[in-house]
Amino acid sequence: MGTLSLSNVTKTFGKVEVIKGVDLTVDDGEFCVFVGPSGCGKSTLLRMIAGLEDVTSGDVRLDGDRINDLAPAKREIAMVFQTYALYPHLSVRDNMGLGLKQLGTPKAQITAAVEKAATMLALEPLMDRRPSEMSGGQRQRVAIGRAIVRTPKLFLFDEPLSNLDAALRVATRIEIARLHRELDATMIYVTHDQVEAMTLADKIVVLRAGLVEQVGRPMDLYNDPDNTFVAGFIGSPQMNFLKSASLGLSSDTLGIRPEHVAISASQGDIEGRVSHLEKLGGETLTYVRTEAHGLLTVRQFGEHDHQVDGTVWLTPDQARAFHFDADGQRLRR
Ligand SMILES: Nc1ncnc2c1ncn2[C@@H]1O[C@H](COP(=O)(O)OP(=O)(O)OP(=O)(O)O)[C@@H](O)[C@H]1O
């Protein structure tokens, strides 16, 4: 079991309140991802769950038990950091087994748990190496292995892939998804990476300035955002925001994803000039400077050529558009 609940959790550093009352439930076996702009409080929230920061007010519960005052080592929670935090003088085997050893677990049991985790993570050939003799990706697998052997109720990941190169990030991301399926464990994962959030999460929590903006399944946040903040945050490239009035519409702002804007050299609703093009292989992004709405992005599948500085016409697909009021709240019709 591993159900986490936060009720009205706050955190104050000095006089500054950085977490301003968070309510959240992460169900047993769920993969929950925290996203939000830099400084919004993702890591602080994670560290409070782990017990590495005190909770200023509110309750943190694991399977119903209030754990606010429980020492980190007693929480049955394992945390994997961006910077691995392995002991340099210990072998992989000893790094992975250390947590259990400190808990006084019998040696045979430690060996069995370490071997099982090593197999899951394909670490067997590396067990006698020290951290300095391994690549970043291998070290991160050891850090994940160290978390697994403790069979915690809850895994916390703080941007675990951000020190890895692009190919290794993809491989390790897939590995984490597999581990989640195999372990059937509850996981909370902090990331800046849209792809990680969209692909790993059962549930995404969008945070902004210490508050939860919206919680939902990835595609629900993408297709049904509550406000301009969530609409702009989820999805890459970002949603376009247009002034409704200049399109003859009654809402304040019209939101349209780059893939739902048609581009033509001869006709359309909005005139603009091509600012620059990005050909990404499978798709082309065209950035168009418009007088009424600023810079807009158009996404087309395949390779397309639009002359830089040339005049183009854009037409948002109204059926796919989102409408927002002057406060940025979604107007659902
Ligand atoms: N020990 C501390 N003392 C004072 N302020 C802190 C401390 N730790 C974090 N903060 C502040 O709390 C706020 C939230 O920080 P936090 O690291 O949780 O944000 P984050 O969303 O994880 O950011 P990032 O995405 O950049 O890692 C920030 O304004 C930060 O400056």
Order of helices and strands: EEEHEEEHHHEHEHEEHHEEEEEEEE
Question: Helicity range of the residues?
Answer: 25-40%
Helix/sheet category:
alpha+beta
Poorly predicted regions: none
Using the alpha-carbon principal axes, give the shape. globular
Strand order of the largest sheet: 6-7-8-3-9-10
How many strand units? 18
Biggest sheet features: 6 strands, mixed
Tell me the CATH topology of the largest domain. Answer: Rossmann fold
CATH homologous group name of the largest domain? P-loop containing nucleotide triphosphate hydrolases
Overview of the structural elements:
- This is Multiple sugar transport system ATP-binding protein.
- With 333 residues, the protein is α+β, with helices and mostly antiparallel strands.
- It folds into 2 domains: 4-229, 3-Layer(aba) Sandwich (Rossmann fold); 237-324, OB fold (Dihydrolipoamide Acetyltransferase, E2P), CATH 2.40.50.
- The protein has helices spanning 42-50, 92-102, 107-120, 136-149, 166-183, 194-200, 218-223, 228-233, and strands at 4-13, 16-26, 31-35, 57-62, 65-66, 77-80, 154-158, 186-190, 203-208, 211-216, 240-243, 253-256, 261-264, 270-279, 283-290, 294-301, 311-316, 322-324.
- The chain has a 6-stranded mixed β-sheet with strand order 6-7-8-3-9-10, with helices on both faces. A 5-stranded antiparallel β-sheet has the order 13-17-14-15-16, with no helix packed on it.
- Helix 2 packs across helix 3, helix 2 packs parallel to helix 4 and helix 3 (107-120) crosses helix 4 (136-149).
- The radius of gyration is 23 Å and the shape is globular.
- It binds adenosine-5'-triphosphate.
